[in-house]
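Appendix B. One record, verbatim.
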Amino acid sequence: MNYFSFYKDGKALYCLILTAVLFTFSSAFAVNSSRHFNFIFQQNQIKGTVTDGSVPLPGVAIGVKGTGNNYSITDYNGQYIINAGANDTLIVSFMGFKTKNVPINRSTKVDITLQYDTTTLQEVRVNAGYYSVKESDRTGSIARITSKDIENQPVANILGTMQGRMAGVNIFQDTGMPGGGFSIQIRGQNSIRNDANNPLYIIDGVPYSSQSVGSTYTSTNMPSQNSPLNSINPSDIESIEVLKDADATSIYGSRGANGVVLITTKKGKSGKTSFTAQYDYGLGKVTRFKDVLSTPDYLAMRREAFANDGVVNYPASAYDVNGIWDQSRNTDWQKELIGGTSQYTNVQASLAGGSQQTQFMLSGNYHRETTVFPGSFDYVKAGSHLSLNHESLDKRFRLAFSVLYSAQFSTLPSSDLSQTAAKLAPNAPPLYDSLGNLNWENNTFDNPIAFFEGKTKGDTYDLIVNAMLSYELGAGFSLSSSFGYTSLNQLQLNLQPSTIFNPSYGLGSELSSVFTNNMNRNSWIAEPQLKWKKNYRKAALEALAGTTFQQQQGSNLVTYAVGFANNHLLENPASASTTTIMSSDENLYRYNSIFARFNFNWTGKYIVNLTCRRDGSSRFGPGRQFADFGAAAAAWVFSEEEVVKENLGFLSFGKLRASYGTSGSDQIGDYQYLDTYSSSGYNYQGISGIQPSRLFNPYFGWEVNKKLEVAIETGFFEDRLFLTVAWFRNRSSNQLVGIPLPGTTGFQSIQSNLDAVVQNKGLEFTLRTVNIKNSAFSWTTNFNLTNTQNELLSYPGLEASTYKNRYVVGEPLNIQKVYHYMGIDPIKGIYLFEDVNGDGAISAAIDKQTIKNLNPKFYGGLQNTIRFGNLEFDFLFQFVKQENFNENSGNAMPGTMNNQPSGVLAHWLNPGDEGPYQGYSNSNGTRSLANTRLSQSDAAISDASYIRLKNISLSYKLPQEWTKKMTCRLSIQGQNVLTFTNYRGIDPEFKITGYLPPLRIYTTSIQINF
């Protein structure tokens, strides 16, 4: 049987039809045939630039009215090229702007200015992890920032870009040391264990371990080990979404109890291939120093202390007052040791473009920071990012592929001298002698800078790969699968050469030592999914089902080597005379789950969202490995009701939403339920022995977090004023902790589930206002405020546990039980504290009953963005209401050979004086004990609230007529610019004192694009 094919046999038919059409034209028509032929068939190439009145807009869709397949996308310069007839009309559309019809009117160059349309912001799709959802249809609580917020900040860790910008997300910096990390809490502390409150990080669909990188043996210059997120280049990020409530997190099951942070990298866009390059250079300094005594006041304190102790002849070791050190010398050691200027260099370049079917982006970056310490130290990060997206011509098959690779190299001091700088006597000798060598001042001076001879060196390599394949099956079904792989390797050395010691000790390289941490961690994940979408008249249905297969494997080896032929061989482990293995660990974690989602949307007014997940984890014993989690959420868009539209014209959007559900946590580490053994470190007949290290617990199960939220979202005056208020309550139970055991068992504790309940509840406010918006000038404001209350609701057997002096039922987890400071004995000049039980003695176990809450009462941020023509000005204020440890915490007794805060000048001197500081002393035991108790009392904790000008950015885009086909933007940026606080200490943000505070950084930047 013969079949006729229009593709093969139809070519002749096409020719016949075309010939017939040509011959049907009359002779009259043929007189002007040339003109009419051009009018009908000729297409002109139309070029132009699309802006918002001042700045080019990339990614704008431009089509020709009346055609379905003729369209173009603007490039990074906002430029486009499209073929159209001389009298055609262009249809220009872009999210967040009003769609515009632009007649060509026989022009070949058509520049277009779009007007903002605030109401379409509800159409923005938000990443919710396994699916995306329009803002107007969102039933869960999701906070979001974009690359626009990120690019204005000179920070190396992406958590730093989120500070003060998201309600319910509390982030604080651990240290100002380059490569240092940040800590994050999403809606409070859920777990009693401090190391079990990290959120789940997802980078382009791939789970990324939140476990810190490094070892306590090698990361001695920081309060915590290295942050894994240091590997991610902020310039590669397109958006960051934080999932907070049950509706948003339950689909992640056991991994979502502490919230989920979704990180999406930049992708290529169709259009002309463009090249973008940016260079940043900046300087950083410590934001502020502690106010300490100058030499005259310091020496007066020392002499008075000896007089109070009845000492007439100063001891031989009191070099500061006995005449050995120059008593006219006055050095601000904070300026000498931590007052230097760090340099900040950042280079970023990217190439992006593609067709309608295939888009690509390739970028590379280089980042280098030095320190404020004396000496040559730096932290270097380099990386690359590749993104490839493809869509078939029939739009049924899609491929998304991304690779992130980074390498970090650090050479930093092994010690942080911030605390030493504040305590060193102001008349201590200079650091170097006249020949430029370390000064030991005839063996009377322990030169602090000698510690900088010791270094922490680290090499870290990180790889993240993701591939997403999807295919439209038809009838609303689509099949997809995500594949991910991560690999992280670190070699970190803590080098302690013999040069850190005073040469007079005669210690050579036989005492030089090095701690080595060699860590490897890799993981893979596969997540096949089936999705279904269907519209039935006024109802829109969506369903999702999938499964997860995940594995993480790691190893960690820490060694200690000592005894080298010379200090140049410290990095060669074979040169050590003795090598000791401090720890050697290997672990394997496997995770498997199934998950589902169903969404019902009736005319965009009534929305129901259901999610569920069944998880299996290798971290629990037989019978306890699987658990079920789920959530239900509903939303009512009441602004779509006719009665609202007719009577509340000023209300452009209104939505009520609520959610309840459960998520879990298995953040307890591997093999915790098993009987385990470790090396004893002792040899018997040449064989190293082992010893039991953990007891088996078959009932070891999941931690569960039950989350409830109710929220209202309202937009007024076409969403020029948009307010969101959310109330939430999270209750975490079945706490995974170590339960103490009697000593007769041979073990201190057993890992188990404790029937304790921790609650976090609070309110979140988010306000966005469009104050002024036109083509020449715009001013927008974003404000967020969070009030969170943490409480230990129950803890059975608390009074009989080892935690009885740490926690109190009805109080937050982050409390300190301290002495109550009562002032000074006016006769003896010694601190007084409350004797709680009235037994005439002060003891820690009984009299530390005053409770101080160190959680913030509220926190938030205020951001303003002002644009005038090509000039843009952006600034962010971050604020926190809290209490924190002050200068009395850990402070040496006034009168000893340690510099003091200037406040100690107000001290007891004669009977009847009120202080507030007690009389000086160098060696009095009673005063020393009282000073120790002061550092453990409520006098050492005070208001540490602050308002900080966190970020400021001023940028200017050079006029297009100057740069022709290239765009150029110049900017100045500042981080941690100003801090307003009454806090008595170096910085109010820190949770752990004695480390370098955040730096004030100013950078200049130039960005070109063509």
